[in-house]
Amino acid sequence: GAGVSQSPRYKVAKRGQDVALRCDPISGHVSLFWYQQALGQGPEFLTYFQNEAQLDKSGLPSDRFFAERPEGSVSTLKIQRTQQEDSAVYLCASSLFDGGYSNQPQHFGDGTRLSIL
Amino acid sequence: AQTVTQSQPEMSVQEAETVTLSCTYDTSESDYYLFWYKQPPSRQMILVIRQEAYKQQNATENRFSVNFQKAAKSFSLKISDSQLGDAAMYFCAYRSKNRDDKIIFGKGTRLHILP
After folding, report:
1. Does A2 touch chain B (CB under 8 A)?
2. Per-residue confidence at B43, pLDDT binned at 50, 70, 90?
3. Section A36-65 average pLDDT
4. CB contact under 8 A, B108 and A113
5. Averaged confidence pLDDT in chain B
6. Residue A103 above 80 pLDDT?
7. A32 touches B at CB < 8 Å
8. What is the pairing mode between strands A112-116 and A10-13?
9. Which of A102, A108, A112 to mutate to test the interface with B (most CBs of B within 10 A)?
10. How many CB atoms lie within 10 A of CB B17?
11. Are strands A88-95 and A107-108 parallel, antiparallel or unpaired?
12. DSSP characters for A43-100?
């Protein structure tokens, strides 16, 4: 079956521009996570959705970062007034929900590589 | 807060040999999951192996096995009979068990396979 799909695969933007990154989770997956992976580093958590509810946004680095999942399926991560330090790979992961015991594996997309010039 | 530490930024191993990647972590929780993920240049995160903290038996998946030392908070990955396709970044990771929680990753170890 289809995996987690992210688009675009690459995005180049000038400093100060707004960008929007899309994540299509696996059909039926309730849980959706966004991670930011800087060059040469491990992924770091940004935010978590359960259906359309954003239950944890503690990892968002600033108020320039905004995520939504209005219908509980596709999610968009938006970055306003981009800065060079926003350059990174943005990974999306989805999973089934098992009542909150983290027993379901997270399935990752291939990520969007964002470069801010 | 939980942390994951990988102290080997890069490692190399001869094809067909065995290599061990190290990982330590810190947590005050008693029940959790530990993972090793592989990330090739394609960027996709591939789950290699998973260990449940309450299980004393070390997890194995074909050529991949772990040495889980709960008291020492150590979780190393052993790759036997290394193959060229094993070349990638390897991330050690932690996840709390009692809630639908994020994964906490280490900084990774880049593994080179020498032909």
Report:
1. no
2. confident
3. 95
4. no
5. 94
6. no
7. no
8. parallel
9. A102
10. 13
11. antiparallel
12. -EEEEEEETTEEEE-TT--STTEEEE-TTSS-EEEEESS--GGG-EEEEEEEE---SS
